[in-house]
Design brief:
Blueprint: H1 2-25, E1 28-35, H2 42-61, E2 69-76, H3 81-93, E3 99-102, H4 106-119, E4 122-125, E5 140-142, H5 147-161, E6 166-172, H6 176-191, E7 195-202, H7 210-219, E8 223-226, H8 230-242, E9 248-251, E10 269-273, H9 282-295, H10 301-320, H11 325-332, E11 336-339, E12 342-346, E13 352-353, E14 356-364, E15 367-376
Parallel strand pairs: 1-2, 1-3, 3-4, 4-5, 6-7, 6-8, 8-9, 9-10
Antiparallel strand pairs: 10-14, 11-12, 12-13, 14-15
Helix pairs in contact: 2-10, 3-4, 5-6, 10-11
Length: about 375
């Protein structure tokens, strides 16, 4: 009888521990993240992941969200569409997440949108700017401005601020991001009265651009638009300067990370960004200070967008009063308020209506830095 009582007591303890463990597990809500953490555009992904991680740490430090702590489960897609699908599938089926941040590039993000919409998982990208990204359905959001706006910003800046009238374009014809920016820049610059003196394309993976540069030089442009990622722009700027093309270079947010990989050939370069690290906005300054303290590096626009991406989800959850993604997506669509990258409100396609900063690459004390030039707001 004593043995039976002891056995029952042990079993009861084990059951209690099991329930306690289960209760403890439900105290944490997992947030998925799919970013390029390795590969050619790893800078974008690691920065956005770190920004999102900082946001989660601040949320947890202030008591969590609806009584729950948050945890980030990060997957690496290497900027590859097929790997982004695999990462999303793992997060959805194995980790059972209801919210996924990512990816950094348009192509990788678009590979996940139909899956997210079908699974009723909120997918929000910090930096996928292609127009088509959010068109899949009402569970898809983004925190960044879109390609047409960014291309228009580049064209208006070149025409109005730089006084350019003859532009050359050199872009990757095999990438949605690059072609989207090139198309919108081309249309806007011509609409303003400017002339496209040279329109040159290349294929993803190319490293020798001298043939295109030779044709650009013959066209004698007063600005060259490079709507490409920083690894390509590093080579392109060098080859442009080597052939004696000294005019201004203009690009999009894919230039983030350029100054860490290039030399003086990128001086007289300007690019549209979602955030300026030298911002004077109090909210932005607070973020920069916290990010620098946490990661011992300067906050990039991708870090700021990653932070805002997580905060947009958190604010949607708070407004909905639940973690149910169906309710959260409705609440997120109604957001209109200040964030690190500026005031954000969503249009009918869940694209944020917000301004773009123009940054100039300058030499400060022997080091290349991105200096805030101006802000262009949507009209």
């Amino acid at each position: 009888m004593k043995k039976f009582i002891v056995l029952c007591t042990v079993l009861c303890c084990l059951v209690s521990l099991a329930f306690a463990g289960g209760a403890k597990a439900t105290d944490t809500v997992s947030i998925g993240a799919v970013f390029p953490l390795s590969g050619q555009v790893a800078f974008y992904g690691t920065e956005s992941r770190d920004g999102a991680l900082l946001a989660i740490e601040e949320i947890n430090a202030s008591g969590g969200l609806l009584g729950k702590k948050l945890a980030l489960i990060s997957e690496d897609d290497e900027g590859n569409a097929e790997k982004s699908v695999n990462a999303f599938t793992k997060l959805n089926t194995r980790d059972k997440v209801s919210f996924v941040l990512g990816s950094s590039t348009s192509g990788a993000t678009q590979a996940m949108t139909a899956l997210a919409q079908q699974a009723k998982v909120i997918l929000i990208s910090p930096s996928a700017t292609n127009t088509a990204v959010t068109r899949t359905g009402d569970y898809i959001f983004r925190a960044c401005f879109i390609d047409p706006f960014q291309g228009v910003v580049g064209a208006d800046f070149a025409y109005d601020t730089l006084g350019s009238r003859n532009a050359a374009i050199l872009y990757d014809a095999g990438a949605d991001y690059n072609t989207g920016l090139a198309d919108s820049f081309r249309r806007q610059f011509q609409a303003r009265g400017g002339r496209i003196a040279a329109d040159e394309a290349y294929q993803t993976g190319d490293v020798d651009f001298n043939a295109q540069v030779t044709r650009i030089k013959a066209a004698n442009p007063d600005v060259v638009y490079l709507p490409n990622y920083y690894n390509d722009v590093t080579l392109q700027a060098k080859q442009l300067r080597q052939q004696g093309i000294i005019c201004a270079l203009v690009g999009g947010d894919g230039w983030d990370g350029l100054i860490d990989n290039a030399g003086d050939e990128v001086l007289n370069g300007f690019w549209s960004a979602g955030f300026a690290a030298d911002t004077t906005d109090p909210r932005g300054r607070t973020f920069v200070t916290a990010y620098t303290s946490r990661f011992n590096k300067t906050a990039s626009q991708f870090a700021a967008l990653g932070y805002d991406t997580m905060m947009l989800v958190a604010d949607g959850i708070k407004a909905a009063g639940t973690f149910d993604p169906a309710a959260v997506k409705t609440a997120m669509a109604k957001i209109n308020g200040p964030y690190v990258t500026g005031n954000i409100r969503f249009d009918e396609n869940r694209d944020p209506i917000k301004g773009a900063a123009i940054l100039e690459i300058v030499n400060k004390d022997g080091k290349l830095v991105n200096a805030y030039k101006t802000t262009v707001n949507p009209k």
